[in-house]
Structures are given as C-alpha cells and as structure tokens.
Amino acid sequence: MPPSKRSSKKQFIVGTIQIVVALTLLMLLLLPQNAATKVLDHLKSIDPFYVGVLLLISLCTNFTNSLKWRLFVTGGGQSVSYWRMFKMALIGRFFNNFMPGMVGGDIARILMLGEQIGSHSRSAATVFMERAVGLVGLVLIAILASIANPGVLQYWFVSLPLAAGVLGCAAMLTAYFSPRFSGLLVRMCKTLPLLRNYTVKAERLIEAFFMYRLQSRTLILSLLLAMFFHFAACLNVYVASLAIHFHPSFWDVLVITPVILLVTSIPVSPRGVGWWEWSFGVLFAGAGGSADQGVAAALTLRATAVLMSLLGGIFFVTDRGLVTAKAPVSPPQVNC
C-alpha cells in the first residue's frame, strides 16, 4: 500500500475513534433522566430574538479576531486591508466547519495570507501569534472573573483546567521572551534528522515568530483585542443561555466560558463533534445549569457559528483574488 493511502487510512481510523469516544461521552451525559428529550424541548423553545443577537455578536467577534490577526501582519511589514483580513478569517471558519480532511481553518489562513504577502513562514508566524495571544487573553479574562466571583472555583472541573491554563501560559510566555529558547529551536532544526532538510524554512519561521518580542505596541494592542474577543465570547454563551430560557449569573458565565474554551481546544474529536457539547453539559453546572441546558446552549452556539461561516464559504467561492493578489511590503515595525 502506498504511503499516502496508509496515511489516509490511519487518519480515518483515528478520526472515527475520536468521534466514537466523544459521542459516547455525550450519550453517557444525556441518557440519564431523559436528558436528550429535555435538550430537544430547549431547542424547540428557542427565542428567535436571541438568535439574531448571537449572529450580531458572532459578526463582532470575527471582525475583532481579524483585527488582532492584522496587527501581526502589519507588524511584519506587510499591508493587507481590514476587509481582506476579515474575509480570510471567515474563510478559515468555513474550512473549520465544512471542509473534510486535514486542511483546517488555520492551515487555510496560512496558505491564503502566504500568497498575499509572498511568505508562508511569516504567514504562519502571524497565525501562531494570533492564537497564542488569544490564549493569554482567554486566561486573563478567566483570572479577572475568578477574582470577582471566587465561589465558582469550588468546582474542580472549573478550577483544575483554569490552573492548567495559567501554568501553561506562564511557561509559554517565559519561553517566548527567553533569547535562549529561540537559539535552542534553531539548534534543534540543525541537528534533528527529521528537521535537517527543512533548516532554512524553519529558521525563517523562527525568525518571523520571534521578531514580535520587540514590538510592545503590537503585543499590547493584540492582547487588549484578545480580551475583548473573549469577553464577547462570554456574552455569546450568556445570550445562548437566555435563548433557551436559562438565566445564569453573568459573572458565573465569565468564569466557566474560558474554561470551556480551554477544554474544547483539546482535539478529542474532529471539529469538536460531541466533545464541544459534552464540555458544555458538564461545565454548565458551574453556572447553576444542568447537562441538558448546557448541551442545548452548545448546539445553539454551534448552529450560529455554522451560519456565520457560510459567509466565509461565499467569500471563498466568489473572491478568487484572495489566493492571487500580492500585498505591498514595508519594513517590519520595532516599538519597544
């Protein structure tokens, strides 16, 4: 069997196992006390007004994310319009929700932006930085909400993932701002057999990634946008709860939403199928909710995200210039 077919078969088997595991967890959550029927009842009673609010919030969060991403593009010396960045961000959402295989949203964004700016290494660095700063902003929102509402930390399934996120961010920031760490990565690229053939490309990626250490303005602005994005994400969860006629405390939602996003970032199943809903079902207890309410809110959020990503599909089909146009280049920013 050719290597490509073996790889495809392995991916299919792993993906199938992941889906089975996630759906099994979900069924174990929903089977007791006729929870599945309750979920359907919640979905049938959704208030359309709040669905409209969810779509508006989703539009706002996607635009905020594209602004954050663009900061790293301009920081690297390239100029891409706000509108084009917004389109590419939504196309990434479309790939996440609809396209099969390994071409996820981040890969699609790297490829599209790489064509725009003429460098896939710099493109990859911008996407990675946008993700990394987003994680730091997520943890900061959770910390601030926990200080304001410490009672919800009594639940181990809230406090434990939050503690892991804080430690992970601390380690990531320490490594990123350590000159020794970047030097270690370059040496690894030159010595490891698997990376030796890609040394030049890897060094370009490392250089592009670490150049933002000197750009304090870019890092601060992106962090503020990340915190606003995750605050809006908390508001999204709160509105989804109202849509199914569950009225939690917004302060509780401010704590459990970052924890949900941290937990669901673990790739347990393709596209988070089942895992997303299970995480909501379990963690909604931290806001005084039940498993069926959590799953119903998760399905509502998934539906609005899918609807919004369809806009990205329209952009992907109609704007072929996204993969052909070149952006003008200017010197990288340095702002200490």
Short summary of the structure?
The chain has 336 residues and is mainly α. Helices cover 76% and strands 0% of the residues.
Write the layout of secondary structure elements.
Elements: H1 3-30, H2 35-44, H3 48-75, H4 82-98, H5 105-117, H6 120-148, H7 156-176, H8 179-191, H9 193-196, H10 199-210, H11 216-243, H12 250-264, H13 275-283, H14 291-318
Helix pairs in contact: 1-13, 2-14, 3-4, 3-6, 3-11, 3-14, 4-5, 4-14, 5-6, 6-7, 6-10, 6-11, 6-12, 7-12, 8-10, 11-12, 11-14, 12-13, 13-14
Q: What descriptors fit this protein?
A:
mainly alpha, 76% helix, globular
Description:
The protein has helices spanning 3-30, 35-44, 48-75, 82-98, 105-117, 120-148, 156-176, 179-191, 193-196, 199-210, 216-243, 250-264, 275-283, 291-318. It is globular and about 60 Å long. It has one domain (34-318). It is 76% helix and 0% strand. It starts with a helix and ends in an 18-residue tail after the last helix. The protein is mainly α and 336 residues long. It is built from 14 helices and no strands. Helix 5 (105-117) packs across helix 6 (120-148).
